[in-house]
Write a structure and sequence with these properties.
The complex is a heterodimer of chains A (331) and B (245). By secondary structure, chain A is mainly alpha-helical. Chain A has a single domain, classed as Orthogonal Bundle (ABC transporter involved in vitamin B12 uptake, BtuC), CATH 1.10.3470. Helices cover 74% and strands 2% of the residues of chain A. In chain A, the strands form two sheets. In chain A, strands 1-4 form a two-stranded antiparallel sheet. A two-stranded antiparallel ribbon of chain A has the order 2-3. Chain B has 245 residues and is α/β, with parallel strands linked by helices. Chain B has a domain of 171 residues: Rossmann fold, CATH 3.40.50.300. In chain B, 32% of the residues lie in helices and 28% in strands. In chain B, strands 6-9-10-3-11-12 form a six-stranded mixed sheet, sandwiched between helices. A four-stranded antiparallel sheet of chain B has the order 2-1-4-5, with helices on one face. Chain B is globular. Classes of the chains: A mainly alpha (331), B alpha/beta (245). Chains A and B meet through helix 8 and helix 9 of A and helix 2 and strand 8 of B.
């Protein structure tokens, strides 16, 4: 009997984000008739796709007991590099209009943005594994340094006005589904498969669960840890490009504070900050929870100040549940 | 008289850490179907010696022969490829993963990068059942299993990898009496399968129960190797503490 209760609490802990998400959807849909309208649902999905993409990478990082605080600043840097490539420099930086001519097509901008992301991820990973500096410190340094580089590249101001093909990646739709949502869905499936069904995914969990055991089993743990930061860098590059396409602008202050949103999404989704535990589906639920909450509160005209308070409380509750569910299962 | 068949010969091994000599001219060997105990105080050099054989540390000088062939063991994977498997006290398993994942850790069976989970689960189940290890659930993280069961998984993994040499570091230290006895049965069972075992232990009773020969280390030097039926426990204790009988 007692053991059943323990199991019940354990599963309550595991499924609490999902239960909470469903509760929120029920509450908002009863309070606001348009909440469940497909347009609004896709709107929520589009809103979460930027943080969601980065959260996919962050899930890998946190499972191997890491953290990446540099993602917010890296968004700005990646987006700006993409924009500079598209504009062919800083001369035409403010030319906005329907038929804005670009020096280079959107895919070169995307490639540049992703390349910078990969590069920064590699630098983060190598500093953490080879210089043995804690991830928190390395990426805190990155948070400052990448933002500074972004300001340097852009000379402080925004770069605005891209052509239609460029903007389509952020603003376009296929049928009712926004392009960012499609991109997001594709990478959700990909990451889920990689993490759950491949040898690489198994290595991620083993390094997170017991790095020493993994090393003694012949797994190159430095390489595995570095790879998670590279993956995150890739998603930051991609997300930064989508963000600039959606806003039709890149600027050095973009993505300010995103690192905390992303980490919140991953942690609320049940990925343990102690490593070894978590999955992509949880991260998606975490992302949707924040998306729904924000969207619902906006629809109900709740002040954005109060929204921030609520989000903070939910984060703490989620981690409490996580620790709690872990402790009840120590049988 | 027939020349004994050694699977492991470690000759004149030296190792120092930042000038501190951890091992001084240690030579030790191991035959098939034999259990050699390695005993000594903390810091006597037991772990260092064993880590050199398992690839976790590198020797300064000396030579290692596996089945009469000189080898260089540069990392744990090397050691594993030579048939040397180590069962660490507490380091061997990833507690967040299930039985099969741990059983095949670092040696995952896959098809085009995709894990063959079903195959791995069946194989681990088969091997553990052959060892008469009873595990209720193969799908829970091994953190939820008992210490004895986890030790059995680590041993089963070594057997499955066709270990010729098994290194066991304090295999019973974290276990209850009943579980320690089960591990003891396992050791006796393994001995019959052409495997040589190095057993490191603090427990003098364990050593006498399982080992054919006992090597005593003190301050990085090999004090003596005795045949366990020819000495008493008091002799060994005295060797550990004073270095003489």
């Amino acid at each position: 009997m007692f053991k059943d209760r323990k199991n019940f609490l354990y599963y309550l802990g595991i499924f609490s984000p999902l239960i909470f998400l469903i509760l929120l959807i029920l509450i908002f849909s009863s309070l606001h008739p348009r909440f469940l309208h497909p347009l609004n649902i896709f709107n929520v999905m589009r809103q979460i796709s930027i943080t969601g993409l980065i959260a996919l990478g962050m899930t890998f990082v946190i499972i191997v007991r890491g953290i990446d605080l540099s993602v917010g600043s890296l968004i700005a840097l990646c987006g700006l590099v993409g924009a500079v490539i598209a504009k062919g420099g800083l001369v035409e930086r403010f030319s906005v209009g329907v038929d804005t001519e670009l020096a280079n097509p959107w895919y070169w901008a995307l490639a540049g943005s992703v390349l910078i992301g990969l590069l920064a991820g590699t630098v983060n990973g190598v500093c953490i594994t080879k210089l043995k500096v804690p991830a928190f410190v390395v990426t805190l340094g990155g948070l400052s340094a990448y933002r500074g580089t972004a300001l340097l590249v852009s000379d402080g101001g925004p770069i605005s006005g891209f052509n239609e093909a460029y903007r389509w990646i952020g603003q376009g739709k296929i049928g009712m589904v926004p392009i960012p949502v499609i991109i997001f869905l594709v990478f959700i499936v990909l990451c889920h498969i990689v993490l759950k069904y491949t040898v690489y995914g198994r290595y991620i969990y083993s390094v997170g669960g017991n790095p020493e055991a993994a090393r003694l089993s012949g797994i190159n743990i430095d390489l595995i840890i570095t790879s998670t930061y590279v993956i995150t860098g890739f998603f930051v590059g991609l997300a930064a490009f989508i963000l600039s396409a959606r806003l039709n602008s890149s600027e050095a202050v973009a993505g300010m504070g995103y690192e905390l949103n992303v980490i919140a999404v991953v942690v609320v989704g049940g990925t343990s900050l102690f490593g070894g535990r978590g999955n992509i589906l949880g991260t998606i639920i975490g992302a949707m929870l924040f998306g729904v909450l924000q969207n619902g509160l906006v629809l109900l005209n709740v002040s954005s100040y109060i929204q921030q308070i609520i989000i903070g409380i939910i984060l703490i509750l989620a981690v409490t549940f996580d620790k709690f569910s872990k402790s009840v299962r120590q049988v | 008289m027939e020349q004994p068949q050694y699977i492991v010969q470690m000759n004149n091994i030296y190792k120092s850490f930042n000038g501190v000599k951890a091992l001084k001219d240690v030579s030790i060997n191991l035959q098939k179907n034999e259990v050699v105990g390695i005993v000594g105080h903390n810091g006597a050099g037991k772990s260092t010696l064993i880590k050199i054989l398992s690839g976790a540390l590198h020797k300064d000088t000396g030579s290692i022969l596996i089945e009469n062939k000189q080898v260089e063991i540069s990392d744990p994977k090397d050691a594993r490829n030579m048939g040397i498997e180590t069962i660490y006290q507490d380091l061997a398993l990833a507690g967040n993963l299930d039985v099969a994942s741990n059983f095949f850790l670092g040696n995952e069976k896959s098809r085009f990068f995709f894990l063959r989970n079903k195959f791995m689960k069946e194989e681990s189940k088969r091997v553990l059942q052959e060892m008469k290890i009873n595990i209720k659930s193969y799908s829970v993280p091994v953190d939820f299993l008992s210490g004895g069961q986890r030790q059995a998984i680590a041993i089963g993994r070594a057997i499955y990898n066709k270990a010729k040499v098994l290194i066991m570091d304090e295999p019973t230290a974290a276990l209850g009496i009943e579980e320690a006895r089960r591990v003891g049965d396992l050791i006796n069972q393994l001995k019959k399968q052409d495997i040589g075992i190095f057993l490191i232990s603090h427990d003098i009773h364990d050593v006498f129960d399982f080992c054919d020969r006992i090597a005593i280390l003190k301050n990085g030097e090999l004090v003596d190797i005795c045949v366990s039926v020819e000495v008493t426990k008091d002799d060994v204790v005295s060797l550990i503490i004073k270095g003489t009988k």
